[in-house]
């Protein structure tokens, strides 16, 4: 589903160039859930943004569903395949757009018809009733906002969902609800996930395999079972696991 | 929850303030009503709004409200102090100042209204395009803006009017052309902060093109601060228009433009103070009203200033 | 413990709004000795507002009322701002969540620590400098001389938070209120910052109010925990007994955390009950 190799991402031009990601390589097969773990500044979110086309300064190979991707340009087919959920639901919803406006815009841009029915479906899918359709973001709680953001991502009926710390801005009880929702959606729609998180327990709950990142480099790719056993090959991984127990 | 709410009759206020609107219309009306409540809480802003409504009424019904024609001269009655016959006195041609002020409100509103339509729209376009596109487009547009900003407003307007010929239409054009740069700067600054927001990135990922991002996502957020700014700038625009009138480059006599009226009264200011003071007072009141309104609008529209 | 450092009884914080009064804190009572008291709850539970109310930082239209709010027997409820300002910093200090927002970006770190010290303790520049260096040493910053001359944007998050702690502890306050002091930090730095704070609080015999959303962190780090829900304290218990909590809310919170060692298919979701908002807290020995 997703193949990344030799990926370098940088910001700025020399001499101020900052290498955010160096020589990253991993692949995610169809239906798999893959985690990217690391501390702030490790470049984990940067990888997601480069895949999504939100950063153009990268080099290397990114292949989505067998198609090579270049620069920051993405075609319509890409957006129908890949969607993203952002970290902070307070920042990822337009403050002046109602839930209805957000979802119908997403559906129209994907060229979908029958918008009314689809909006109802989407809201049901993410566990929000019809009553939420005409609310504005300020009338929603953090968890409800994140559900709307997930619904927006699902509008395109994508197969690969990029999740950028989708629960780190939420309370733990709400986090549990969103994590459950993500699990259900993945089963129902046969989605592939790439999830960025700093929380090993969250990644352990959602993912099958994960890559541990440190200062822009992937130091280790391991299975969640190995993570649970605390069986990191690298010191850094073991240190991370120990710190989050 | 929504079912139980529907089953019992609710007051119109509850319907409007509902946190769970059932239709697009209810949501929009609710948002408007919220804004109105915030605005209403600001007593001074309400005062400004009432004055402006009165001003509009005055402009619309000018021919019926004015006791006399603004142009009818009566040299026997020239320079009369305020009295029962002429509430605000008469000017050097014996024209009734009150009637001229009432008719003049049309001109003032025309100037202010047109400038307020043109300048922010030009500013919004240039500012958001510059901020959103970045790179050389940004450089080019902002340097042009800088050039306009580098001249004192009134001097630049004077130059325009001098080149185009004195008339009220040209005065409006000149004022609009000199008034847009601050709006462009403001819109650009707002765009720069919005441009990298996650919701813009999310819209991009839906496949939204630059035009759609600009119009549907960025403009709605810039417009509110521009409206506030316009309302606060209105006083300045009125004064600039009056300044042009005063210098004889705006409305031409015998049109009852307030600035031109002050100019007429200038030579009599020591002995017949009311000739210049009455239009001055009118300008003062209307400017104040716009400022108060702008303050109230900021409470409603500016998300940064808003509470809660 | 004869007189507690801080004694709060029936604290309420009310915000008047268009739709009637909203009570952010509803009748919170507790006493703080020379101990580490954790205050845990989700966003909107009133935990941060409790801390702000103690420091007199609730702004209008918020109103603070209480039957009692005493610092070593002296009432500090709704003191005039001038007297409160004297109290803040010198006797009660606060460490906020994100050092980026609580440090002044245009002043060097050293100047800020010195200023905060001199404001409360007086003394000359030389003495203040000495104290600042000492504090930076105390928060285990290597090469404090160099750090003194840096600006806040030049230091990392963990370093920034240590500087904040140094600054807040320079005037030797009796109580430190830490509001999510480590939530903006990475896990590996978090432990270090907490240990430093812990050591300082213990050495000086201070009282610590540790406000956090992280149950496990609080359990590890505090002596006693108050669990807040919807503006009320629903449970108060020794930190080591947290995992035997009795209140369904506390239990629910604990269960909803994913755990590495015990994988589950679905996380148990917290079912909120109306009675938690109003039900009486069974009288605990402390209150």
Give your account of this protein's structure.
The complex is a heterotrimer of chains A (245), B (308) and C (287). Chain A has helices at residues 44-52, 76-81, 99-109, 115-125, 142-155, 172-189, 200-206, 224-229, 235-243; strands spanning 2-11, 18-28, 33-37, 58-64, 67-68, 82-85, 160-164, 192-197, 209-214, 217-223. Chain A has 245 residues and is an alpha/beta fold. Chain A has one domain (2-243): 3-Layer(aba) Sandwich (Rossmann fold), CATH 3.40.50.300. In chain A, the strands form two sheets. Chain A has a six-stranded mixed beta sheet with strand order 6-7-8-3-9-10, sandwiched between helices. Chain A has a four-stranded antiparallel beta sheet with strand order 2-1-4-5, covered by helices on one side. With 308 residues, chain B is an all-alpha fold. Chain B has 13 helices and no strands. The longest helix of chain B is centred in the middle third of the chain and has 37 residues, at 97-133. The model of chain B is unreliable at 1-6 (pLDDT under 50). By secondary structure, chain C is α/β, with parallel strands linked by helices. Chain C has a domain at 6-91 and 173-278: Rossmann fold (3-Layer(aba) Sandwich). Chain C contains eleven helices and eleven strands. Classes of the chains: A alpha/beta (245), B mainly alpha (308), C alpha/beta (287). Chains in contact: A-B, A-C, B-C. The interface between A and B is medium-sized, with 37 and 28 residues.
- Portion of residues in helices of chain A? 25-40%
How many DSSP-defined strands of chain B? 0
Calculate the mean pLDDT score of chain A and round it: 89
- Summed up, the helix count of chain B is 13
How helix-rich are the residues of chain B, as a percent range? Answer: over 70%
In the CATH hierarchy, the architecture of chain A is: 3-Layer(aba) Sandwich
Distance between the termini of chain B: 24 Å
- Biggest sheet descriptor of chain B: none
**Helix count of chain A?**
9
Q: What would the CATH topology of chain B be?
A: MetI-like fold
Main beta sheet of chain A: strand number and arrangement?
A: 6 strands, mixed
């Amino acid at each position: 589903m997703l193949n990344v190799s030799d990926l370098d991402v940088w910001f700025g031009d020399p001499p101020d160039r900052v290498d955010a990601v160096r020589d990253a390589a991993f692949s995610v097969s169809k239906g798999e859930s893959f985690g990217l773990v690391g501390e702030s500044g490790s470049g984990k979110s940067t990888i997601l943004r480069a895949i999504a086309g939100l950063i153009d300064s990268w080099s290397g190979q990114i292949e989505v569903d067998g198609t090579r991707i270049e620069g920051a340009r993405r075609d319509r087919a890409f957006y129908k395949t890949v969607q993203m959920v952002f970290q902070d639901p307070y920042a990822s919803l337009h403050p002046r757009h109602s839930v209805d406006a957000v979802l119908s815009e997403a559906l129209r841009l994907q060229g979908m018809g029958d918008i009314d029915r689809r909006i109802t479906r989407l809201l049901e899918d993410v566990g929000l009733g019809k009553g939420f359709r005409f609310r504005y973001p300020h009338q929603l709680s953090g968890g409800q906002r994140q559900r709307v953001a997930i619904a927006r991502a699902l509008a395109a009926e994508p197969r690969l969902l990029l999740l950028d710390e989708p629960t780190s801005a939420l309370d733990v009880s709400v986090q549990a609800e969103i994590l459950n929702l993500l699990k259900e959606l993945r089963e129902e729609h046969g989605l592939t996930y790439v999830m960025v998180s700093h929380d090993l327990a969250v990644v352990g709950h959602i993912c099958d395999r994960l890559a541990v990142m440190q200062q822009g480099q992937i130091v280790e790719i391991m299975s969640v079972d190995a993570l649970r056993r605390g069986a990191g090959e690298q010191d850094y991984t073991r240190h991370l696991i120990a710190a989050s127990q | 929850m929504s079912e139980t709410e529907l089953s019992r009759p609710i007051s119109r206020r509850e319907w409007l303030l509902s946190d769970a609107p059932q239709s697009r219309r209810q949501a929009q009306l609710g948002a408007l009503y919220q804004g109105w409540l915030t605005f209403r809480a600001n007593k001074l802003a309400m005062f400004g709004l009432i004055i402006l409504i009165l001003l509009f009424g005055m402009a619309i019904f000018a021919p019926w409200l004015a006791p006399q024609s603004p142009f009818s001269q009566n040299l026997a009655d020239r320079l009369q102090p305020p009295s029962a016959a002429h509430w605000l006195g008469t000017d050097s041609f014996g024209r009734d100042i009150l009637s001229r002020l009432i008719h003049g409100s049309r001109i003032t509103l025309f100037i202010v209204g047109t400038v307020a339509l043109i300048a922010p729209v030009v500013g919004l376009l240039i500012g958001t395009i510059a901020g959103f596109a970045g790179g050389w487009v940004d450089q080019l547009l902002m340097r042009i803006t800088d050039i306009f900003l580098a001249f004192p407003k009134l001097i630049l307007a004077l130059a325009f009017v001098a080149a185009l010929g004195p008339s009220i239409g040209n005065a409006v054009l000149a004022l609009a052309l000199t008034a847009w740069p601050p709006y462009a700067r403001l819109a650009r600054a707002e765009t720069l902060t919005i441009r990298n927001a996650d919701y813009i990135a999310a819209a991009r990922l839906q496949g939204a093109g630059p035009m759609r991002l600009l119009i549907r996502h960025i403009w709605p957020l810039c417009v509110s601060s521009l409206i506030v700014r316009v309302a606060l700038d209105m006083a300045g625009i009125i004064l600039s228009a009056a300044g042009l009138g005063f210098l004889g480059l705006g409305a031409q006599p015998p049109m009852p433009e307030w600035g031109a009226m002050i100019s007429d009264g200038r030579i009599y200011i020591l002995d017949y103070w009311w000739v210049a003071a009455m239009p001055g007072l009118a300008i003062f009141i209307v400017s104040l009203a716009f400022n108060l309104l702008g303050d109230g609008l900021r409470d409603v529209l500016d998300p940064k200033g808003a509470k809660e | 413990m004869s007189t507690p450092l801080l004694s709060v009884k029936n604290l309420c914080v009310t915000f008047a709004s268009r739709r009637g009064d909203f009570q952010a804190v509803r009748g919170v009572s507790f006493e703080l000795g020379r101990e580490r008291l954790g205050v845990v709850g989700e966003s909107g539970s009133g935990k941060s507002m409790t801390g702000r109310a103690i420091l007199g930082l609730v702004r209008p239209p918020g109103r603070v009322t209480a039957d009692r709010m005493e610092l070593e027997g002296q009432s500090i409820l709704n003191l005039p701002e001038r007297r409160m300002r004297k109290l803040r910093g010198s006797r009660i200090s606060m460490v906020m969540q994100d050092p980026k927002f609580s440090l002044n970006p245009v002043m060097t770190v050293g100047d800020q620590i010195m200023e905060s010290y001199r404001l409360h303790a007086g003394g000359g520049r030389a003495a203040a400098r000495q104290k600042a260096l000492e504090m930076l040493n105390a928060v285990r910053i290597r090469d404090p001389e160099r750090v003194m001359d840096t600006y806040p944007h030049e230091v990392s998050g963990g370093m920034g938070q240590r500087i904040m702690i140094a600054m807040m502890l320079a005037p030797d306050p009796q109580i430190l209120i830490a509001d999510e002091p480590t939530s903006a930090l990475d896990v590996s730095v978090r432990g270090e910052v907490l240990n430093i704070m812990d050591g300082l609080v213990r050495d000086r015999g201070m009282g610590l109010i540790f406000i956090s959303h992280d149950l496990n962190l609080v359990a590890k780090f505090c002596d006693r925990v108050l669990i807040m829900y919807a503006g009320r304290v629903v449970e108060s218990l020794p930190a080591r007994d947290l995992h035997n909590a009795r209140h369904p809310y506390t239990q629910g919170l604990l269960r909803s955390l994913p755990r590495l060692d015990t994988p589950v298919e679905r996380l148990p979701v917290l079912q909120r009950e109306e009675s938690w908002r109003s039900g009486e807290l069974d009288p605990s020995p402390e209150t």
